[in-house]
Amino acid sequence: MRSTSEQSSTNQSATCRTIVHQMGKTEVCGQPQNIIALGPYVLELLLSLGEQPAGFADHISLHQGDYNNPTAQIPYLGARITTQPVNVGLAYSPAFESLLRVQPDLILATELNAAQYQQLSDVAPTLVLKNFDPQANLRTVAMAIDRSEQAEQLIATTEQSFAAAKQSFAPIVAAHPRVLALTSSDAQEFYLATAFNSQCGAAIEKLGFQLVYPPGLSESDLRVPAPVSLEILPQLMNEADFILLLGFNWNLPNQLDTSEQFQQSQLNPLKQRWQENPIAQSSEAAQSGRVYFIPAYLCLGLPGAIGTDLYLNELKQQLLSSP
């Protein structure tokens, strides 16, 4: 007769899954309990599948100490967190002493952590996710935490949300189909948001709009944050029926009380400088009141189901009430 410990080991082995990810294959056994999310990108995936983090690393140092009040300390996602995650440093440079304090049985990372993969794997089974492939990443995380059926339901729900939004936007697409989507912090340097480099542009195109690009760019050019020179900017603005400005600002205090304050901090500097920029104000879109400001964080930092809902809601609120 097998001992209780042998039976337990056999049962756990029966529930092991081999997960394919960016750095190879990793075996995850049983149901992970202490999960670390390196970055809001992977935290979003975890929360959307109904699991809670034991540790979290943000991309920027918004908070010092552990997350004892996540609603105020983690933008947009904090209200969904019922634990008090250990602060394990920055997503691209986690603090290994803090990682060990969590005693994790699963670490969710991104390609930013590729160089640290072996060290992370020595701590716990580690999955490295793609920088931009929300559905594939969701399925990978779901397999690791035994939520694959829920992941497929979530993907289907997100597709239904896009279909409904596309129908709502159809009159606007018919009247103003061409969109210039740019990320910027200061209205002096601009980068293209494309259908290939982020959910920011991909969602716009999925709604039926046509993104405006500089001539001569290949798909490989559009897969990176391509800078837009000030010389060509007026031409692109004049080709666009409306302009979508995705603002970001990492010069922040260490404490923000609400997601609303975080959103204001992302947009206010860009709005002010855009108003002061004569080139920006000369475009037909600007003169017609068809320039819209949305935090880039929603589609760059949160490209999964939660961020997509927030992003679509922002687009609806602004565009559906536009002239």
TrEMBL record:
SUPFAM superfamilies for this protein: Helical backbone' metal receptor (SSF53807)
Highest taxon of source: Bacteria
GO cellular component labels: outer membrane-bounded periplasmic space
InterPro entries: ABC_transptr_periplasmic_BD, Bact_iron-sidero_bind
Keywords: Signal, Transport
Compartmental location: Cell envelope
One of the Pfam families matching this protein, by short name: Peripla_BP_2
Ranges for domain Fe/B12 periplasmic-binding: 34-323
Record has rRNA-binding as a keyword: no
Gene3D superfamilies (alphabetical): Nitrogenase molybdenum iron protein domain (3.40.50.1980)
Gene Ontology biological process terms, A to Z: iron coordination entity transport
Family named by the database record: Belongs to the bacterial solute-binding protein 8 family.
Protein name (database record): Iron-siderophore ABC transporter substrate-binding protein
